[in-house]
Write a structure and sequence with these properties.
This protein is an alpha+beta fold. The chain is built from ten helices and twelve strands. A six-stranded mixed sheet has the order 3-2-1-4-5-6. A six-stranded antiparallel sheet has the order 7-8-12-11-10-9, covered by helices on one side. Helix 6 crosses helix 7.
C-alpha cells in the first residue's frame, strides 16, 4: 500500500460570498502530491495547475498567500482532466494523508461539481496535522509551517504552493513516530454511510467511533437504540449511564457511562447534515476524569434551570 500525501490550493469568489456559486464556493487551482511506499520512502510526485472555470480572478486574500497569479493559472488544464489524471496516478492501493480535513472536503466538492465523485461512503485517511498534535501537545493542531520549524526540518522551498506543501507534509509524516500509526487513521465523512449495514464502527486506543447512516429527521437519530446504546470504548461491553443523553448544544448530545473495568467515559453524538441533505450522526466515546464528570453534570443542571426559567417566562 502507498501513502498519497497531497495538498490543494483553491480560490474563492473575488467579489464576495454573495456572488459565489453555492455548488462550488472554493475552486481548486492546484494539486500537488507525494507518493510514499510502505517504507515511507518517496517514490513519485504529482503536480498540476488547474485552469479556473468559475472564478477566473484571484480573491485578494488568495493572491496575497500564493506565489503566483492569473498568468500561471491560464496555462493550466481543466479540473476534470487534472483530477482524472491525479486519481489514476494514485493507483489502486493507497491511503490519503493531508494536513487537516479541508483538502479532502474541497476535493470532493469540486469532484461533485463535475459529477465525478467516486467516494460514495466514509473512508480512512491520515490527518497528519492531528497526528502531529498528539506528538506535540504544546503546539496542538498548528499550521504546517510552524510544525516543520518545530521539528527542525529544512525549509528551503516556499510554502503555499500545493507541491511544496505536499512535500513538507510528507516530510513531517516521515519524521513522526509510527508506533501507533495503525490506530491513528480517521474517517472522511463527506458522504454518510448509505445504509445500516454500511455504518462505521471503529475502536481506537483512546476512543471509539460510530458513523451512522442518514436519516430524514434529527429526532430519528436519538430514537435509534443502537446509536444511544453506551458501549465501553475498550472492551465494547454495554455499560450503564451515569448521566443520560441530553442536548449539550444545538448540534450535539452528551452522556456519561461507567465501565467496571475501564472507568468513567464520555459519549458525544454530533449531528451533521450530509452533502445529500440527509441527517446523520458521529458518536464518539472516550475516557474522562471524575472532574470532567462533575463538569458535565453541572452543565446538564445549568441547561435544565435555563429551560425551566424560559418556560416560566412564557
Amino acid at each position: 500500500m502507498n501513502y498519497i500525501i497531497f495538498d490543494l490550493e483553491w480560490n474563492q469568489c473575488p467579489r464576495g460570498p454573495e456572488y459565489e456559486n453555492p455548488r462550488i464556493p472554493f475552486e481548486i487551482i492546484e494539486i500537488g502530491a507525494v507518493k510514499l511506499n510502505e517504507s515511507f520512502e518517496i517514490v513519485d510526485e504529482y503536480s498540476s495547475i488547474v485552469k479556473p472555470r468559475i472564478y477566473k480572478f484571484l480573491h485578494n486574500h488568495v493572491r496575497q498567500m500564493l506565489n503566483y497569479d492569473e498568468t500561471l493559472l491560464r496555462t493550466g488544464r481543466p479540473f476534470d482532466m487534472v483530477c482524472r489524471e491525479f486519481m489514476k496516478w494514485c493507483g489502486n492501493d493507497y491511503i490519503f494523508g493531508t494536513w487537516g480535513t479541508g483538502d479532502l472536503i474541497q476535493l470532493q466538492k469540486n469532484m461533485d461539481y463535475y459529477y465525478m465523485n467516486k467516494f460514495a461512503e466514509p473512508f480512512k485517511y491520515y490527518n497528519i496535522q492531528s497526528i502531529f498534535a498528539e506528538n506535540y501537545e504544546d503546539l496542538g493542531a498548528c499550521k504546517l509551517e510552524k510544525a516543520v520549524v518545530a521539528m527542525n526540518l529544512p525549509t528551503e522551498e516556499e510554502f503555499h504552493t500545493a507541491i511544496n506543501d505536499a512535500r513538507y507534509t510528507a516530510l513531517v509524516f516521515q519524521n513522526l513516530s509510527k508506533k501507533h500509526l495503525h490506530d491513528q487513521y480517521t474517517y472522511d465523512y463527506y458522504h454518510e454511510p448509505k445504509d445500516k449495514a454500511s455504518e462505521v464502527f471503529a475502536f481506537h486506543r483512546s476512543y471509539s467511533e460510530h458513523i451512522t447512516r442518514g436519516f430524514d429527521q434529527r429526532t430519528d437519530i436519538m430514537e435509534d437504540k443502537e446509536i444511544t446504546t453506551f458501549r465501553c470504548y475498550k472492551c465494547k461491553r454495554k455499560i450503564a449511564k451515569k448521566i443520560k443523553w441530553f442536548a449539550y448544544n444545538q448540534n450535539s448530545f452528551v452522556s456519561v457511562g461507567h465501565c467496571w473495568y475501564h472507568g468513567n467515559q464520555k459519549g458525544i453524538i454530533k449531528i451533521k447534515t450530509s452533502n445529500s441533505g440527509k441527517i446523520f450522526a458521529i458518536k464518539k466515546i472516550k475516557p474522562i476524569t471524575k472532574k470532567e464528570v462533575e463538569d458535565i453534570r453541572n452543565r446538564q443542571n445549568e441547561l435544565r434551570e435555563k429551560r425551566i426559567e424560559k418556560r416560566k417566562k412564557h
